[in-house]
Each structure stands twice: as C-alpha cells, then as structure tokens.
Amino acid sequence: MVVGAAVALVLLVTIAVIVGPYRIPPADLIAFLVAKLTGVASPLSASAEAVILQIRLPRIFAAMAIGAALAASGAAYQSLFRNPLVSPDILGVSSGAALGAVIGIFLSLPIIAIEATSFCGGLLAVLTVYGIAAAIPGRDAVLVLVLAGVVIGALFGAGVGLLKFLADPYNQLPAITFWLLGSLAATNPADLTSLLPAVAIGLVPLGLLRWRIDVMTLGDEEATALGVSTRVLRIIVIAAATLMTSAAVAASGIIGWVGLVVPHLTRLIVGPSFTRLMPVSVLFGACYLLAVDTVARTLGTVELPLGVLTAALGTPVFLWLLAFSRRPAWS
Amino acid sequence: MVVSVPCLSVEDLSYGYPGHAVGHHVDFTVAAGEVLCVLGRNGEGKSTLFKTILGLLPPLAGAVRVDGEPISSWNSRRRALTFGYVPQSGAGAFPFTVREIVLMGRTAHRGAFTAPSAADREAAAMAINTLGIEHLAEREWARVSGGERQLALVARALAQEPRILVLDEPTASLDFGNQLRVLEAVRGLAETRALSVLLSTHHPEQAFACADKVAVLAGGELVRLGTPAEVITAETLHACYSVDVAVLPVADGRYRVCVPRLYLP
Questions:
Q1: What pTM, to 2 d.p., does this model score?
Q2: Rounded CA gap, A28 and A50, in Å?
C-alpha cells in the first residue's frame, strides 16, 4: 500500500512537471535530471529551467506539503476527538486560521508573520470549540463539538467578511478573495521556506506519539487508567495539528475536505492504528492534492480555484461516507 | 509475628464532584489475593468511588494507600503499573482489533515514543490465552459481543500486569454464561496471581461466587462490610434495595441464593 502510494506520488510529480501552458517534453525532463545528477551543463533553455525550478517544483512541493499536512492533522483530530467525521474545517480551525491570515494580509505583514497570525487564529478557534464542548456536559459530546465548530467557524467567517469590507478594494480585497478560494498559483520558492518547516515540526511529534494517540481514542478516563498523561498529550497533538493546518491555510487559503476525506478513506483501507494511518494519510493527502492542483491548472484556459475543486470532489464523498459507513458514524 | 500491610487501603475517603459529594468516610482494605465486592443501588456512586480510587477523580477528603504509601502524588503511569481498570465497555469509535486493544494494556510499560516490544506482544498474547479468547483476537472490537468485549477488557487489564484489579460492573449486560466466565476468571486471577480485586455488581449472589468480602454502599456511606455470609442477609438487602427477599443456603451451604419472599410458602 505504502509502496503503491509512493510510486503513484513519483508518477504524479513527473506528470505535474511536464504538463502546463509551457510543456516540458519528458525527454527534456530526463535530460535535465541526468544533467543535474551528473553535474554537467543542462541542455534545456534558461526559460524551461526557470519554469521547472521557479514555478513548477515549488508549486508541486507546496501541493504535496499542504495535502500531507491537512490529511495528517485531520487524522490526528479524528483520533483525538474520537470521531471519524471531524476535520480541521468542521472544528473551525480552518476558519480561525483564515481569519488570522486575513488579518496578516490586511496589515501587509510578511509571510512568516501571516503564518504566525494564522496559527494563533487556528489555535484560538480549536480551543474555543473544545472549551464550549467541555463546558456543556451531559449532552452528546461529539454533536456539541461539531455544532460548536460550525458556530465558531461562522463567527470567524464573519470576521473575515468584516475585514474584506474594510480592505482596500483595489489591492487587498482581490488578494484576500482569491487567496480565500484556495490556490497555489502564486506559490514561489520563498513560500516553501516557511511552509515546509512548519509541516515538518507538526508531523514529528505526531509520528513519535503514534502509539499514545491510539490509546487516546479510548477516551480520557481509559487512556489515563492505562498510564497516558492525557492532558499533556492532548495539548501536544492539538498544537501540532493546528500548526500544520494553519501553515497550510497561510500558504494556500482554505482548501476544504482533504482533512476529512483522506484520513477517513485511509482508515477504511489500513485500519485505525495511527502507526499506519498517519504515514499512509500523508502519502494519500500529498497524492490527492497534487493531482487536484495539476487538474486545476491544466483543465481550462483559466486556472480553477483549488478550494472549489476539493469541495466539489469532497462533498459527494462525504455524503457517501455518511450514508454507507459500516458503523453509525456519530456514535 | 508478621504484621501484614493490606495491598490497597481506602481511608476515610470522601468522593464525588466539586460541590457535590457522592459518598463520605469510606474505609476498607483489600489484601493481596482478596476479592472485595461492592454492592449498592443505582446511582449510589460505585463508579465514582472506583474512579476516585484509581485517581481519575480527585478525592474530596481522605486517602488511598498502596502498601501503606499514599498515592495522591503518583502520576498516571505509576498508577497504571499498580491498578488495572476494567470499565464498562463501549463499542469504541474506531475499528481496532481485540488484540490491538489488549496490547494497549502495555502502554505504561514503555516510553511515550516506543513501539510495543516482543515482550509486550507476548504479554498481550498470554493475557488473551488466560481469558480463553484466542478466537476473538483478530476480530474487530465493535463486532464482538458485549460479554466478549468484557473478557477482552479483563485481558487488557491483565496485560497491564497490575497488582490491583478494579472492575466496574463487569457482568452488567452479559448473558448468563459470560457472567459466570468473567467471575470465574476474576476469582482465578486473584488466587493464582495474588491480585487484589475490587469489583461492583448488581447481583448479590455473585458475591458468594467470587468474593472474600462484601461492602454495601447506601446513602453515601459504607453501611456494611464483612464476609458474604455475614453481609448478604435479608435485612441488608431490604435496607439497600427496598425489596423483600430470603437468602437461602443451597449445595450443602456452600452457596446461597436470593429468593423473593413472594415465592416462599
């Protein structure tokens, strides 16, 4: 499974380098790789090299990193909140991160600062949602969690609306609007220097704590009784997942559904254990978003917003899961 | 003469939630190899008492000691190496196999980043064998019956290699055969491994089958404590459950049954 997904990823990367308005013939790509590996002068034109190195590859790496980050954080939230249908979107993290990032854009901050405000917004959202769910005991905990996520998401969405209303209509407003739709069109190599470390910093603790995260799916009391420091673990997992979601949102806007659908489908294939769920989700997420982004930029003469495509694909899959899941998903 | 220190001692324990005490001044001890059965009507706070002993809830007053040492400062890992907890089982959110769930019992035996070792897997397999549920090991948690899950949770607690086993209504919602299987397993573990066992039940008769001591909770206090024969009497059951029953010896007095008065001549 892992090998298959890895092979698919390599194939997708190859295709993604080749296709586009400036077509790179496969023979040229191979010549380019051989030249780079052996250190001889590249036979490609300077413009072809610029397309590969400055435009295609940064975008490909960004798509893979964002897909991996959203899928891994979705898997982590699902395990932690003990529900296979929660995701960064449903918990309000994406909206919070979006509001944080829009504040950053509104204040014309540099990208690293936008990532920081985005992280603060995402963290504020998930902590508010979690606090509400904890403060309303006795009801169906997951239902409260999801409803609180929807409500807080709407509130943060209203904040985004307010900033759009206040934004300069000639420069900031189009930037905010286009960015919110979810797009990697403007990705440049500099974006990667803040995106990739943030994703790596989020993935490492989740990977290290994978066995403990499995125990957390039993619920707080049982996990504590089995020797897990649930409070510390929960803080670490939420921080790591929120950091990855926020970095993804800061780099590309809101790209919905990846964090819900990818880990859910992965779990159906490899089972619920985080030791398999996380790495395979990361691979699937990277494959999925790279494939969707490649389609988004080659399908029509105008590039389609990525968030629009993932929503169009994710909605029917979500409804299918809701209707045909083997177990009642909300139990 | 050797003065034996009881493995588990509960001293003047008050438990419940902040601003809402459920029980007061509970005192009892459980020695190694001894089974204590807690009786009490619904809502009497048996689960709350157990969770307080396990450290899942902070005590409102009093202390829990293990070998005479107060455990209030113990972290969850140290507690998990001492106490095995068998909660009432739910179906769980995710389709883990029975073996994976039992293996989670080994959590406290290794570091936070460490994968289960061969020894951990061996301990889980042994626990599964001990409970006789090898045939369930690779099945999905949500797809085995409630009784089978209960046996698996006992196996998980056993894989934990604790000294004290705490079982919250382990026979609730089980069929007749599984009730007996769970009680026999618990009794056997107390004897062969010198475990101290604390369990709650709604069936007074079960105390005759498995317990050395019985504690009765009523009105937020421990009202009776003694051997099953001493405690489980018509008077106690009437006071506790407001029912009229007779407790009759059977099998030459080696077992007793509770019969509603209605059916007696």
A1: 0.90
A2: 13
